[in-house]
Structure formats: structure tokens, C-alpha cells
């Protein structure tokens, strides 16, 4: 069953993170969500080291704004996931910050920025490359089991942001760097072992 496969991927992903899965549904209204919960609860028994919480979609949208750090892995249907992923992107300040991974059971997948290809700014050297670079970190962590390399990329991005380096989508009137400049800065920080 498809949900069982997706749930296992969520629990396996949580094992590489903070060991928490939040299943998002609408079980107080939708019959399909009641079945969703039953299946997720069944799969959760295979992962006693991972904490499972259930949350209704309307509460989840509010909780993401209120305290996004309470979440680790969100498990939800495509409908709810599409809504929540856009909300998560804007919590970071830009669609250019959010990576995406579509994983299969063997751990391989498709990694890409969640915001799409942005053809309207193609070739202008103004796109935020962070989502693409974070997508590489996801590939390293989830398909290649190269956690150290993924962490090095994440640390380099965090350092650049902590130093106030921003592309135009995040600059809000301040000086902005180009796509190439941001990529070069992050690459330098990775090489320096930040």
C-alpha cells in the first residue's frame, strides 16, 4: 500500500534527524483521514525509537507559524503537504530557501528546489541558490549516507546567512549578492570546513 511505503520513508528519515514524525490529517472530519491514522499508527510500531504525534491540518498550519521548531518530519497527503510546504518556505523568508526530496523505499530519490525552476529569472544571476544547494545536502544524507558532507554544506549556508549575506529575495532593501556570489561564498565555507 502506498501510504505504508510513504510512512516508512518518513520514519526512516526521522531516524536520521530528531526522531519525531508528526502525521497531519483531518481525522475529525474525513473518513480517509481516520484510515490514514490507523495505518500510520500500525507502521509506527515498527519504529519504537521514533516519536509519533498526530495533528489536524488546521492546527498544523497555525503551529508551523507559532513554533516551527517543534516539528521534525511531517507526514501528510499530497493535498496537505502542498499547502504546508509553501507555508514552510515562507517561514524561511523565500521559496528559494526550501529544498525538496521525493524518496523511494531504497533511499534514492529526486532532489530539487521546492519552488521550481523560476524561468522568469533564468539567466539573470539573481536566483537564490540555497534551495538547490540544500537539495544536494539532502541527496548526500538520504541517498548516499554522507551525513558529514551534508552537514558541512548546511553549516556553510548557516554561516553565510549569519553573516548577513543575502540574495535579492531575502535582502529586503539591503545589499544583495548574485547567484554566483552566494554559491561561491558557500563553496568557500565548505572548503574551509566551517
From TrEMBL:
Similarity-based family: Belongs to the isocitrate and isopropylmalate dehydrogenases family. LeuB type 1 subfamily.
Keyword list, A-Z: Amino-acid biosynthesis, Branched-chain amino acid biosynthesis, Leucine biosynthesis, Magnesium, Metal-binding, NAD, Oxidoreductase
Ranges annotated as spanning the membrane: none
Cofactor dependence: Mg(2+); Mn(2+)
Gene3D superfamilies xrefs: Isopropylmalate Dehydrogenase
Annotated protein name in UniProt: 3-isopropylmalate dehydrogenase
GO molecular function: 3-isopropylmalate dehydrogenase activity; magnesium ion binding; NAD binding
GO CC annotations on file: cytosol
Top-level EC class: oxidoreductase
Alphabetical GO biological process terms: L-leucine biosynthetic process
Presence of keyword Oxidoreductase: yes
Domain Isopropylmalate dehydrogenase-like: 1-186
Catalytic activity: (2R,3S)-3-isopropylmalate + NAD(+) = 4-methyl-2-oxopentanoate + CO2 + NADH
Subunit structure: Homodimer.
A Pfam family hit: Iso_dh
Organism: Escherichia coli
Pathway the protein contributes to: Amino-acid biosynthesis; L-leucine biosynthesis; L-leucine from 3-methyl-2-oxobutanoate: step 3/4
EC number(s) reported in the record: 1.1.1.85
Keyword S-adenosyl-L-methionine among UniProt keywords: no
Amino acid at each position: 500500500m502506498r501510504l505504508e511505503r510513504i510512512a516508512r520513508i518518513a520514519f526512516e528519515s526521522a531516524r536520521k534527524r530528531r526522531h519525531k514524525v508528526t502525521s497531519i490529517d483531518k481525522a475529525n472530519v474525513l473518513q480517509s483521514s481516520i484510515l490514514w491514522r490507523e495505518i500510520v499508527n500500525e507502521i509506527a510500531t515498527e519504529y519504537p525509537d521514533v516519536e509519533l504525534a498526530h495533528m489536524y491540518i488546521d492546527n498544523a498550519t497555525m503551529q508551523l507559524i507559532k513554533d516551527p521548531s517543534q516539528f521534525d518530519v511531517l507526514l501528510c497527503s499530497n493535498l496537505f503537504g502542498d499547502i504546508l510546504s509553501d507555508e514552510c518556505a515562507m517561514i524561511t523568508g523565500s521559496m528559494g530557501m526550501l529544498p525538496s526530496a521525493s524518496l523511494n523505499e531504497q533511499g534514492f530519490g529526486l532532489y530539487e528546489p521546492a519552488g521550481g525552476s523560476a524561468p522568469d529569472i533564468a539567466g539573470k544571476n539573481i536566483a537564490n541558490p540555497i534551495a538547490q544547494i540544500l537539495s544536494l545536502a539532502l541527496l548526500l544524507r538520504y541517498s548516499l549516507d554522507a551525513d558529514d558532507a551534508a552537514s558541512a554544506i548546511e553549516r556553510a549556508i548557516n554561516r553565510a546567512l549569519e553573516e548577513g549575506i543575502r540574495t535579492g529575495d531575502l535582502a529586503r532593501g539591503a545589499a544583495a549578492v548574485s547567484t554566483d556570489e552566494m554559491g561561491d561564498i558557500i563553496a568557500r565555507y565548505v572548503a574551509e570546513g566551517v
